[in-house]
Write a structure and sequence with these properties.
This protein is an alpha/beta fold and 338 residues long. It contains 16 helices and eight strands. It has two domains: 228 residues, Rossmann fold, CATH 3.40.50; 93 residues, no CATH class. It is 44% helix and 9% strand.
Length: 338
């Protein structure tokens, strides 16, 4: 169990352990979907996703050409951006680019969920299999979370943990839903009620939880409303206030698969300086030592007495040789509070 209030800040790198794509791979997949071209006005010759194009133009036929042009802009321009998030933020005032891009995000994430290690099809007699996930950070997190919390106290299991998740997928919630049922032998409804008490925020939105994990059919355009750009979210006072409260409440802050992009760090930056007693752990796999130092200094500036030219060694532990699952192995006692 976690003895101290522990906040996990999760990025796309953490989901790669489950075979979900990094932002750069997601951008390439979205780019490919936008290659919508026709000959003689109606014969498709492009390699794009006609199902998505037809859905987005179904009640907007008069704007079909404009959406095709928006798709081409996304197709080519997204490959020059770090992520789909960055690209959509550049075109924050173009409603067609935003709608088309967000719908593509939803479609790609559902496809990625279905192709992930976490997906299983009950209709085909397949059940949740923890063995498939044994090397992932989610299993190692669960192994630290449950000791000392017997079944009769299962509702208390998330009292000391919270999540800020920068991903659009539902992997954390879906894993925990099934893990709780498996480890405690409880029904789905009871497990879901426990998860409802978990403090979890998706700053850029998330696919509606009523949609089946890895669903093959959904109204991607309608679900696009759940996806937010950086500019939309930085102005959402309720979300930013909640993030600030979670960061201030935490004794330990753990970054998993997080890329420390400036816009995300700005979203996380607390409005008031933090207590110097907080401990930071984080992965920065394959990041250079120089960039780790820059990142550490940036985080240090959040603390009382800290500034952007120092690095609080021992209190800020950013590891560029460890992936998310390995961080739990390396800092097991430290993360749980001894």
């Amino acid at each position: 169990m976690f003895k101290k209030n522990t906040l996990f800040i999760v990025g796309a790198g953490a989901s790669t352990e489950l075979d979900l794509p990094l932002g750069s791979v997601l951008a390439k997949r979205i780019s490919a979907k936008m290659d919508i071209r026709f000959e003689r006005g109606f014969e498709p010759v492009g390699l794009g996703d006609l199902n998505l194009f037809n859905l987005i133009t179904r009640n907007r036929q008069q704007y079909a050409n404009e959406f095709q042009q928006a798709g081409w802009l996304i197709r080519d321009g997204i490959l020059l951006s770090r992520s789909i998030d960055d690209f959509l933020d550049l075109h924050r005032k173009d409603q067609r680019v935003k709608l088309y891009g967000k719908a593509a995000i939803v479609q790609c994430i559902l496809e990625a969920e279905r192709a992930s290690k976490l997906y299983f099809d009950r209709n085909k007699g397949v059940s949740f299999t923890p063995a498939k996930l044994s090397d992932t950070w989610l299993v190692k997190f669960m192994q630290m979370l449950s000791p000392g919390i017997p079944k009769e106290n299962a509702r208390e299991i998330f009292e000391k943990v919270g999540f800020i998740v920068f991903n659009y997928d539902r992997c954390i919630e879906y894993f925990l839903l099934n893990a709780l049922q498996t480890i405690y032998g409880i029904r789905e409804q009871e497990a879901q009620s426990i998860i409802d008490d978990l403090d979890i925020v998706h700053p850029y939105g998330v696919i509606d939880p009523s949609v089946q994990f890895g669903a093959t059919s959904a109204n991607w355009v309608q679900l696009a409303d759940g996806i937010k750009t950086y500019t939309e979210q930085i102005g959402a006072g309720e979300v930013t206030s909640r993030i600030a409260a979670m960061i201030h409440r935490a004794d330990h802050i753990v970054f998993l698969g997080f890329a420390y992009h400036d816009q995300n760090m700005l979203l996380l930056q607390p409005p008031k300086q933090l207590s110097a007693s907080k401990t930071i752990f984080g992965t920065a796999f394959a990041m250079s030592d120089a960039d780790v130092l820059v990142t550490g200094r940036q985080i240090d500036s959040w603390f009382a007495g800290g500034h952007a030219q120092t690095y609080r060694k021992g209190m800020i532990n950013i590891e560029n040789k460890l992936k998310s699952g390995e961080l739990f192995d390396h800092y097991g006692k430290s993360l749980t509070g001894g």
